[in-house]
Amino acid sequence: MIRINQLSFKYDRNGPLVLDDIETDIQAGEYVAMIGANGSGKTTFIRHLNGLLKPDKGTVLVNGLDTRDQTALSTIRQKVGMVFQNPDHQIVGMTVEEDVAFGPMNLGLSSREIRERVDTALTHVGLPDYGKRATHALSSGEKQLVAIAGVLAMEPEYIVLDEPTSYLDPSARKRVLQVIKEFQEKGMTILHATHEIDAITEVGRLIVLDKGRIQLDGTPGQVFGQADVLKGLGLPIPRVTELILRLRSKGLDLRTDIYSLDDACAELALFARKIMSLPLEGSLDTDKIPWCD
Amino acid sequence: MVRLGQYIPEDTALHGLDPRVKIGTTMILSLIILRGFSLTCTGISIMIFLLAFFARVPLGRLIQSLKPVFLIILILFLAHLFFSEGTPIPPFPVWKLTATYEGLFHGGMIAWQFALLVCVASLLTMITTTSELICGLEWFLKPLGWIGLPAHDIALMVSLALRFVPVLIDEFDCIKSAQVSRGAVFHQGSPVRRIKALASLIIPLVLGTLRRADDLATAIQARGYSRAQRTSLVELQLSLADGIALLMIWAIVLFHLFHEFGFLL
After folding, report:
1. Which residues of B touch A108 (CB under 8 A)?
2. ipTM score over 0.85, yes or no
3. What is the mean pLDDT of the segment spanning A285-292?
C-alpha cells in the first residue's frame, strides 16, 4: 500500500503550494486513474511516490517505507516503477536490451538474471525480438513500450504512469493502453495520470486533482456523475456521459453515472423498454414495435 | 543516417574477442606507432591489413575512415616538408620556400603514423559494438576508482553522449526545417548574417538539450541508478581466443622493445 499523509509541497519557498494537504491511499491491486488540468499537480504528486521529490509537510509511505529515508530509496524505487510522458527523454540505452537492462543492473543482479528479466519484460510488452534494435530507430509507441519494459524488468509492485500516451499516435496509444490493461488483469497496482478521459473508463477508481487538492475521488461512475463539478474545473467528460446528460436535459429520465458505451446502450435500451411497456429483459418481437418495419 | 563507430556486424573470431583485449591492443599498438620506427610501423601496417582481412572489414571502409582527417595529415606532411632544416631538394629553394630531404622523410613518417593511428582506432570501432566498448572502457577506468574517480559515472556519461548523437542530429534537422519553413535563410549573406541566422538554430537546440538532460536525469534516478554495486548485462570473460590474442600482443611488445632497446635482452 502507498499511504499519502497530509502531503504538501512547493517548489519555491515563497512560491504557491503545488500540492496542498493531500490525504489518500493506493491499495495493492488497485487500478487508479488521476485526471487534472495542466498545472493541477499531477506530475508533482506522482514524483513523490518514489522519492524523486520529498514532501515539505506530511509523509509518503510505500509499504511502510518513508520516501524521506535515504537508505530506503533504492527499495522504494524498485517497488514503484515510473513511466514518463516523453519516451525520448527516458531511454538511456543504445539498444533495446541495454535500456531494459538498466534498472536490473542498478539492482545489482547477476548477468544471467538480468538477461532473463529483459527477455520476459520484452515479451510482456509484445516486443520479444527487439533486443538488439537501436533505440533511436524505434517509433514513439515502441519507445514507450520499451520504457514500460524497462520498468517491468525491475519487477515492481506499483507502476506509475505520467501521461504515457500523450506523445503517441492513436494506434500506438491503443497498444500502450492494452499493455497497461493486461498488467491490471495480472493484479499489478497501477496509477495512471492522463488527460485522455476516454482512455480510462476501465479503471476502478478515479482521482481528480485541481490546484494541488483532491477534488473528487471515487469510482468512475461516481466521479462522472458529478459532471458539472468536472466542467467547473475545466475538465472534459467522456462523450458518452455528455450524450446521456444532453438526453436528460431533453427530459429523458436516465441515470447520471454512465461513462462507457456498453452502459449507455444498456441504459437506453432499458429506457426504451420502459416507455413502451415492454418486458425489461429477454429478446423482443420487433413486429410489436411501431417504428420497426 | 549516422554511422558513428561504423560497426560492421560480422561473425568472426576478431569480433568475438573480449572488448578489453581489443581496447588494450589498440592502446599498445598506438604507443608503438607513436615511437615512430619505420620497421615496427611497417609491421603494424601489414598487421592492420591482415586484421581487416580476417575481420571481413572492406579495405575501402578503412581508407574511408581517413577521409575526415586527410586535411590534417596533409598539413602535417607539408609543414614538415617545408619547415625542416637539412639538404634542399632541387629545384628548391623557390622564393622563400625550401623543401628538404629530411623534411620529406619526417613528414612522410608523421603522415604515416597519423594514418596508422586512425586506422587502428577505426578498426577497433568497426569490430566492437558501442556497448562492448563502454563495458571495456569501464573496466579500464576501474582502477581510477581508488583515487575517487567514478568509473560507472564516466562510462554512463560516454554511453549517454553516444546514445544522444543521432537524437540531437534529428532534433537539429527538425529545428532547421521549422526555421526554414518560417523563412529563415542559412546559406546566404555576409558571414555576420549567417552567424546570426545560426543562432536561431543553436539556441533552441541547446534549450531542448538542457530540458532533455533534466528529464533524463529524473528518469535515471527513478530507475534506481546509484554508484553502489552496479552489475552488467554483458559479463566479460576471457576465452581461449583472447588468451592467444594476448600472447600475440606480448610478442609484438617484446619485439618492439628488442628493436628499440636491444640491450634489454
Report:
1. 228-231
2. no
3. 58
